[in-house]
Amino acid sequence: MAPRTGGFTYVGLMVLVAVIGVATAATVSVGDLARRREAENELLFVGKQYIRAFLEYELNTPEGHASHAPSRLEDLLQDPRQPGMKRYLRQIYPDPITGKADWQLVRAPGGGVMGVRSASCAPTIRRSFPDGDWMYLDGQKRYCDWQFAYVMACGGNCKDTLKPED
Questions:
Q1: Which long-range contacts (CB under 8 A, 24 or more apart) does 105-113 make?
Q2: Does the predicted TM-score (pTM) go above 0.85?
Q3: Is 41 domain-assigned?
Q4: CA–CA gap between residue 65 and residue 82 (Å, rounded)
Q5: For residue 4, what pLDDT is reported?
Q6: Is residue 5 part of a domain?
Q7: Mean pLDDT score, 147-162
Q8: How many domains does one find in the chain?
Q9: DSSP class per residue in 44-81
C-alpha cells in the first residue's frame, strides 16, 4: 500500500493562495491611503490658490465700488468690475477629493462669495497643523470643515499678508 501524501500539496497550495491574498489586500490598502494623502495635499494647494484669488479680488476693488467679494466663482476668471481682462484664477479648479468642481461656497457677510470648501465630508487623514498657513484647520476632522476663505486664512487683516508666489 502506498502512503497517502496527495492532500499535503493541496493544503500547501491553499496556504500560499491565502498569503498572496493578504499581501494583495495590504498593498491595495496602502495604495489607497497614498492616493487619499495625495488628494489631500492637492486640496491644500488648490485651497491656497482660491484664498489668493479671493484676496486679490478684494484688493483690486475699484474706488467707490461696493462689492468686495465676487458674486460667483466665475468672477475670479474674469473680473466684471474691471475694464478689459483681469483674471485671479486660470480655471475653476476641481475639488481633488470629489474630482469635480462641486465646491460648497462660503458666503461673505455682505453678500457674495469669500471662500470655498470641499463637498466631501469624508474623514481627513491629516488632523494636526501646528504652524504655518493652515493653523486654522487644526483639529478639523472632515474635508467639508476645511474652509478656504481669505478672512479665515489671514484673520481679517488681509492687505498686509499678500505675498508674491513662492
A1: 105/73, 106/147, 106/148, 106/149, 108/68, 108/69, 108/151, 110/68, 110/69, 111/67, 111/69, 111/71, 112/67, 112/68, 112/69, 112/70, 112/71, 113/54, 113/69, 113/70, 113/71, 113/72, 113/73
A2: no
A3: yes
A4: 11
A5: 64
A6: no
A7: 61
A8: 1
A9: HHHHHHHHHHHHHHHHTPPTT----S-SSGGGGTS-TT
Mean pLDDT for the chain?
A: 83
Does the structure show a pLDDT above 50 at 162? no
If one compares 136 and 31, the residue with the highest pLDDT of the two is 136
Q: Which residue has the cell 457677510?
A: 109
Domain region containing 104: 10-160
User: Within a domain: residue 166?
Assistant: no
Q: Does a structural domain hold residue 2?
A: no
The residue whose grid cell reads 484664498 is: 51
The C-alpha cell that represents 66 in the structure block: 461696493
